[in-house]
Amino acid sequence: MSFKQKFINLTLAFGSLCLTYLTLELIVPHILNHVPLTMYNALENKIRVLGQSSKSSVIPKNYIALVGDSYAQGQGDWLKKMIRSNRYRGTNPDYHSGHIIYRRTGTDVITYGMGGAGSIKGLVTAPIISHLYINSLWPYTLDQPKRILIYFYEGNDFIDNAPYHFIESLNARVGEALYDTQHFDELLQKGALERYPQYKDDSPFRHFIFAGILGTGWENLKKEITRGKRKLKRWIKSMKREQVYQTSFRSKPLPILRVSLNSPSKPGSSQQNIAVINGENVTLPAYLQGPPVTLQPKQMKKSLYIFERCLLFMARFFTQSEISIIYIPGPASVYSMVGPSITYEDGKGKVAPKETITRASQEGCRSIKEVAQRNGFQFLDTRPYFRELAKTKILHGPEDHQHLNRDGQILLAEVIIKHILSDSLDQKNNACES
Asked: What domains can you pick out in the chain, each with its CATH number?
């Protein structure tokens, strides 16, 4: 084959490759909602909402947006089970409350939920940056949601708004200027939005969505390879230790004590949480997330202030959206416990009388309700519904006891549909009274 023929063949091959790539760049942006659940992380954070399956098309219409932390994100045992059972199926199954709302009402639902986020990232950074970035891309025009549901989880949302989290998130020390609303809003604008490159990304390369998927996939692959190498090294070390034990005078290696916050306590432990569920005693994990028992009044004041300012900041951006706040209890304040005390998660864990947990949950609920009423937003206290169903069912775990399982997710969706989406919520009801 002559040099000329080789050159022609290479040119044709390269041209075919470029044509294939450009075709994929034109097609992929319009089929993102068919990306399998197990490949969801290949999408860039800023456009992941487009890959969610709780809507009828890539771009949702007249939709509901969920905002908040991992509860809004949909983390929990249902998601874990779906990932394991659909790893090689290429499917996109339901796994959280947003899916239930979508299936039962026909209304598109997306979630901006961000695991571990406080009010700054959960209410400001995640939804606003994603909305702006998506609308900056050539294939998309994303309207504002017709309704925003804020999932406020008492298990850690109060604590996540503590001052040190706030300072870390905004990369600024505010001191007493915290209560200067104008100054605070300026800090939110700069620290929660403008410091992120995606906020005003005018690079032409942002339009190459398929290339972004390839890049993110490559980065994820490198992380998996690194993780695999670490596992291999640990396995090799364990094999070497086993060989040492086998050649020593010890017949068995000494037992190693392992402690996990998500493991149930042994019988007789003072750190047990035993709940009465369906007439039987059920042992729950040693430490459960619950209301902000440890926050002092000054800390609580700051936490509520940060939440309210972030709420209003978000409302000023999403002017076309009706906003509702959904108060979700922590496991420690859901179940009917046998003993007089509950061990709850706080660093290494602490013990508090049941009455203290109940009172803290009630006060936390009332404080968020006051924020909602003061600013004209709907408020829903889901605690009575969780407590009622928890008499007969476990609503968290069994692996991840800090998040709702399938029964808990379904209940949350049903309560929202009944009291928020059907507009049957009585604003003068007895929310937060028990």
From this structure: 52-203+291-329+361-421 (3.40.50.1110)
